[in-house]
C-alpha cells in the first residue's frame, strides 16, 4: 500500500509553487494517500500482458512540414504580460536558486 | 557583480600528478530548421524581441504542439553519424520546472526514451586517438532568452528584475551526452576541446545546424570529476554550464581540475552542483545545487504521439550520410599532398571546405591554401568575421590565381583585385577591367620604359654592362614605379639584361 508523508507533500507543493499552510498540509496529505491507493488498485487489475498506456490512440509519427507559419505580433504576444519593458515580458527577479 | 569569490586552485601539473580526471560533455545544438520544434514560428536569429511567437510556444491555454518532421530527421541523422542505435519507438516527456524562460512551465524533452543512444566517435589530439562513447542524443526545445536588469553586469547576481524574449523558445534542440570519458590524463582539456570541435565539423557536414558558438547555436556543459587513480571509483562531479567557445571548453576543464584538486588535496569534498563559467576571468562560481531527476516529475507528453522511425527510412538516412570528418580530412590531405602542419592550419582556420571548393574551381592545392590562409585570413581577422563570411567565393579565389598564372596580374595586383571583389565591385575580371589592373603586356610600352630607366640611371646601367647583374634590381624598381606596379617584373628583368648585354 503506497504511503505519502507530510514531508513529501510539502516538497511537492514547493516544486509546484503552491503555498500550503500547516493546516492545509495536515488536511491534504491523508487525502493524497487515498488517491494513491485508488490508483494503485488499477495496477492490481493490470496483468503483465497489459503494457502501461500513455497514449490511448494507436497513432505514431504525426509530423508537420517544416514551413514557417505567421504567428502573433509582438503586441499580441505581450498583451497578456503582467508587465512589459523593451518589448519583453518583465518578470520578478529570478529566485536565488539560479545563483 | 563580477565573480569575486576566488577558490583556491592547484596548478594543473600538480593536480595531474595527484589525480585522474574524468570528463562528461553535454552539447546542445540548435537545428537550422525553418520553423520551431512544435509550431510554425520562424527560427531566424536576431529578430526584434517577441516577434516570433505563437500560442504554442508561449504556452497559451488550448494550444496544441505538432512535431516538426524535419527536426526528427535531423535528430536521426545526428544519431547515425555518431554511430548510435535509433529507437524503434520513443516518446517525448515533460520536464516540469518553474523558470520564466520556459513559458509553459515545462520543457518538452525526452527522458528515458531518447531517439538515439549508445554511440561512439573518435577525436585526435596530438597524434593520439581518443574514443568518446555517446550515451544518448535526444530531442527537446530551446528556452527563451532572459535579460537581467538592475545588476551591474546583466548577470543574474543582484538583478532587480528580468526581461524575457521568447523568440528562441521552442527552437529545436538536440542534446548530445557522452558517457564518462576516461583515460585522457593531462590531455583532458584538449580532448574536451577536440570533441566539441569535432562535433561542430560533423554537424556542419550534416548541414543540420549553423553551429555558431558565438550565437549560441552550439553550447557546451562541461562535467568534470577527479579521482585518486584510474582504478578508483568516480569522484563527485561539477557541471559547468554554458561554456560557449572552443577555447573556453579547454579553459573550463583546466580551471575546474585545479579547483577540485585544491579541495581534495585539502581533505575537503567536491560539492555536486552546477557552476557558472565566467568568460572574462576564466573561473567558475557555484550555481544551484543539482535538482534530482524526480524533482522534474518527468511524464510522457500526452499532447504528442510516440515516434516510431520506420527502419527503411532510417536505412535511407544512413545511406545518405556525408563522409565523416576524420575520413574526409585524411582523404583530402592525401589528395592535396599537404603536410600534417599545413593540414592542421587549414582545418584550424576553418578553411577546409573553402580550400576544397577553390581547388575544385581550378586552383592548385598550394595556391588555394596560400590565398585562404594568408590574404583572406588577414582580411577576415581585420573584419572580425569567419572566413566563410567574407564576400569572396572560392570561385573568385580560383579565378584570381588563374589571372596570376596567365600573367595578367602579379601577386601585388592580385591583392588589389581582392580589394575590389570585397568592396562589391564585381567578379575578379570585372575588377581588373574597371580598375585597370592588368599588367602591361605591350612590349613596345615596356621596352620604352626600360630605355628611359637606363637613360636616367647611367651608373647603374654601366655596372650591369660590367657584369654586375644584381644591380638590375634598381632599374626594375624604376620601371615598376613608372608602370605603377602593373608590369611583369620577370619580363622587365629580361628586357634590361637583353639591352645591356
Strand order of the largest sheet of chain B: 3-6-7-10-1-11-12-13-14
Order of helices and strands of chain A: HHEHEE
How do the strands of the widest beta sheet of chain A line up side by side?
2-3
CATH overall fold name of the domain at 1-47 in chain A:
Histone, subunit A
Task: List strands and helices in order, with pairings.
The complex is a heterodimer of chains A (99) and B (501).
Chain A: H1 6-15, H2 22-45, E1 63-64, H3 74-78, E2 84-85, E3 88-92
Antiparallel strand pairs in A: 2-3
Chain B: H1 12-18, E1 20-30, E2 67-68, H2 69-81, E3 85-86, E4 93-96, E5 106-109, E6 116-125, E7 128-141, E8 145-149, E9 161-165, E10 172-178, H3 188-206, E11 218-227, E12 238-243, H4 246-265, E13 273-278, E14 283-289, E15 299-300, H5 311-319, H6 325-336, H7 340-348, H8 352-360, H9 365-383, H10 394-405, H11 411-422, H12 428-435, H13 443-456, H14 458-465, H15 472-482, H16 489-499
Parallel strand pairs in B: 12-13
Antiparallel strand pairs in B: 1-10, 1-11, 3-6, 4-5, 4-15, 6-7, 7-10, 8-9, 11-12, 13-14
Describe it.
The complex is a heterodimer of chains A (99) and B (501). By secondary structure, chain A is mainly alpha-helical. Helix content of chain A is 39%, strand content 9%. Chain A is built from three helices and three strands. In chain A, strands 2-3 form a two-stranded antiparallel sheet. The radius of gyration of chain A is 22 Å and the shape is flat. Chain B has a nine-stranded mixed sheet. A three-stranded antiparallel sheet of chain B has the order 5-4-15, with no helix packed on it. Chains A and B meet through strand 1, helix 3 and strand 3 of A and strand 2, helix 2, strand 8, strand 9 and strand 14 of B.
What's the short version?
Chain A has about 100 residues and is mainly alpha-helical. Chain A contains three helices and three strands. Chain B is α+β, with helices and mostly antiparallel strands and about 500 residues long.
Amino acid at each position: 500500500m503506497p504511503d505519502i508523508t507530510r514531508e513529501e507533500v510539502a516538497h511537492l507543493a514547493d516544486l509546484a509553487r503552491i503555498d500550503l499552510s500547516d493546516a492545509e498540509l495536515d488536511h491534504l496529505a491523508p487525502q493524497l494517500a487515498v488517491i494513491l491507493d485508488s490508483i494503485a488498485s488499477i495496477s492490481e487489475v493490470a496483468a503483465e500482458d497489459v503494457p502501461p498506456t500513455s497514449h490511448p490512440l494507436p497513432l505514431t509519427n504525426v509530423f508537420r512540414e517544416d514551413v514557417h507559419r505567421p504567428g502573433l505580433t509582438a503586441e499580441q504576444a505581450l498583451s497578456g504580460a503582467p508587465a512589459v519593458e523593451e518589448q519583453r515580458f518583465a518578470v520578478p527577479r529570478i529566485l536565488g536558486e539560479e545563483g | 557583480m563580477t565573480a569575486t569569490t576566488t577558490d583556491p586552485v592547484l596548478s594543473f601539473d600538480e593536480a595531474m600528478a595527484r589525480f585522474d580526471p574524468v570528463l562528461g560533455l553535454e552539447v546542445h545544438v540548435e537545428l537550422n530548421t525553418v520553423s520551431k520544434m512544435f509550431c510554425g514560428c520562424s527560427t531566424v536569429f536576431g529578430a526584434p524581441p517577441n516577434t516570433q511567437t505563437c500560442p504554442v510556444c508561449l504556452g497559451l491555454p488550448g494550444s496544441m504542439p505538432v512535431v516538426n518532421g524535419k527536426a526528427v530527421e535531423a535528430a536521426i541523422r545526428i544519431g547515425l553519424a555518431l554511430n548510435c542505435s535509433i529507437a524503434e519507438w520513443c516518446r517525448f516527456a515533460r520536464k516540469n520546472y518553474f523558470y520564466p524562460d520556459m513559458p509553459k512551465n515545462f520543457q518538452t524533452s525526452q527522458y528515458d526514451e531518447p531517439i538515439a543512444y549508445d554511440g561512439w566517435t573518435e577525436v585526435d589530439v596530438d597524434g593520439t586517438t581518443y574514443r568518446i562513447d555517446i550515451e544518448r542524443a535526444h530531442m527537446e526545445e530551446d528556452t527563451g532568452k532572459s535579460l537581467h536588469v538592475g545588476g551591474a553586469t546583466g548577470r543574474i547576481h543582484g538583478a532587480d528584475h528580468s526581461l524575457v524574449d521568447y523568440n528562441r523558445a521552442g527552437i529545436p534542440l538536440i542534446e548530445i551526452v557522452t558517457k564518462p570519458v576516461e583515460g585522457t590524463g593531462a590531455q583532458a582539456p584538449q580532448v574536451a576541446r577536440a570533441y566539441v570541435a569535432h562535433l561542430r565539423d560533423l554537424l556542419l557536414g550534416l548541414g543540420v545546424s549553423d553551429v555558431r558558438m558565438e550565437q549560441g547555436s552550439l553550447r557546451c556543459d562541461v562535467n568534470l570529476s577527479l579521482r585518486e587513480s584510474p582504478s578508483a571509483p568516480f569522484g563527485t562531479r561539477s557541471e559547468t554550464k554554458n561554456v560557449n567557445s572552443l577555447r573556453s571548453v579547454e579553459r573550463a576543464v583546466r580551471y575546474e581540475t585545479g579547483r577540485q584538486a585544491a579541495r581534495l588535496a585539502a581533505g575537503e569534498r567536491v560539492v555536486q552542483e552546477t557552476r557558472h563559467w565566467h568568460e572574462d576571468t576564466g573561473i567558475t562560481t557555484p550555481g544551484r545545487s543539482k535538482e534530482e531527476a524526480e524533482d522534474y516529475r518527468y511524464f510522457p507528453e500526452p499532447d504528442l504521439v510516440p515516434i516510431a522511425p520506420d527502419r527503411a527510412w532510417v536505412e535511407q538516412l544512413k545511406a545518405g550520410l556525408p563522409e565523416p570528418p576524420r575520413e574526409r580530412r585524411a582523404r583530402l590531405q592525401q589528395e592535396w599532398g599537404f603536410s600534417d602542419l599545413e593540414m592542421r592550419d587549414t582545418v584550424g582556420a576553418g578553411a577546409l571546405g573553402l580550400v576544397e571548393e577553390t581547388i575544385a574551381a581550378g586552383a592548385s592545392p598550394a595556391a588555394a591554401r596560400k590565398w585562404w590562409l594568408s590574404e583572406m585570413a588577414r582580411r577576415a581577422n581585420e573584419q572580425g568575421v569567419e572566413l566563410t563570411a567574407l564576400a569572396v567565393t572560392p570561385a573568385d579565389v580560383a579565378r584570381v590565381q588563374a589571372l596570376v598564372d596567365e600573367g595578367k596580374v602579379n601577386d601585388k595586383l592580385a591583392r588589389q583585385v581582392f580589394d575590389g571583389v570585397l568592396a562589391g565591385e564585381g567578379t575578379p575580371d570585372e575588377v581588373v577591367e574597371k580598375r585597370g589592373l592588368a599588367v602591361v603586356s605591350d612590349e613596345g610600352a615596356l621596352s620604352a620604359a626600360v630605355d628611359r630607366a637606363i637613360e636616367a640611371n647611367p651608373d647603374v646601367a654601366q655596372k650591369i654592362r660590367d657584369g654586375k647583374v644584381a644591380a638590375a634590381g634598381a632599374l626594375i624598381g624604376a620601371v615598376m614605379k613608372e608602370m605603377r606596379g602593373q608590369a611583369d617584373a620577370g619580363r622587365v628583368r629580361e628586357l634590361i639584361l637583353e639591352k645591356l648585354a
